[in-house]
User: Fold Nucleoside-diphosphate sugar epimerase from Maribacter litoralis.
Amino acid sequence: MNSIKKTAIILGASGLTGGLLLDRLIGDERYQTIKLFSRSRIDGLPNKVHQHIGNLLALDQFKNEFTADEMYCCIGTTAKKTPDKERYKAIDYGIPVAAAKLSKENGIKTFIVVSAMGANKKSSVFYNRTKGEMEQGVLDQGIQKTAILRPSLIGGNRDERRVLEKIGLVVFKIIQPLFIGPLKKYKIVNADCIAQAMLNIANTTSNTNVIITSDDIKQLAKTT
Assistant:
C-alpha cells in the first residue's frame, strides 16, 4: 500500500454532501490532513482536520494555506436562502471558480465540484446559466483532473427545513420507476452517494475534464 498520506481541501463541509464527504475523509487512512475553509467552525472534529475561518467570497486571503493534493467543492446556495441574484452568483459561481484558480496556482492536481442538472452557460434560466458558467470557469483553469458532478434532486437528511424540496423528493420517489433509459439521469441521487463518488473519482479514475450525471454518479459510488 502507498505510504504517502494525502491532504484534501473541502469547501462546503457544513452542508449535507460536504459533511458526508468530511466523515469519509476522516475515516480514510489515505488522508493525513483535511483542510476546511468556511465561515464558521465545526465543533468536535479530530486533529487531522484543520479549520480556516473567514469570508469565502474573499478566498484569496487563504492563498498560502490553500495547498493540497485534492480539492472538493460542495459549495452551493438556493434561491430561497439567497434571493438576491448578485449574491447568489457570487456564491455559486464566484467561490468555485476562485477555488479553481487558487488550486491551479498552488499546484493542486485534482478538483471535484458539485454542480447541478440543467447547468448550461447559454441557458435563459438564471440559475442554470450560473451553474453552467461556473463549470466553464472551473474547466478554463486546466487542472490536471477535473470532475463536475451534475446530480438531479439530492436526497438526504438536512438540518434546515426545506418544505418544497421535501415535497419534490416525495413526488420524485413515487415516479422513480418511470425513469428508464435516457431518463435515468433524472432519478434522485442521495448525498451519501455523491460523497462516495467524489472520493472514488479522486482515487480510482484517471479521466480529466469529465461531467458526470446522476446515473453515473451512482455507478461511480459503487466502484472501489
Remarks:
- Residues 85-105 form the longest helix (21 residues).
- Strands lie at 6-11, 31-38, 49-53, 70-73, 110-114, 145-150, 154-155, 189-190, 210-213.
- The domain at 6-222 is CATH 3.40.50.720 (Rossmann fold).
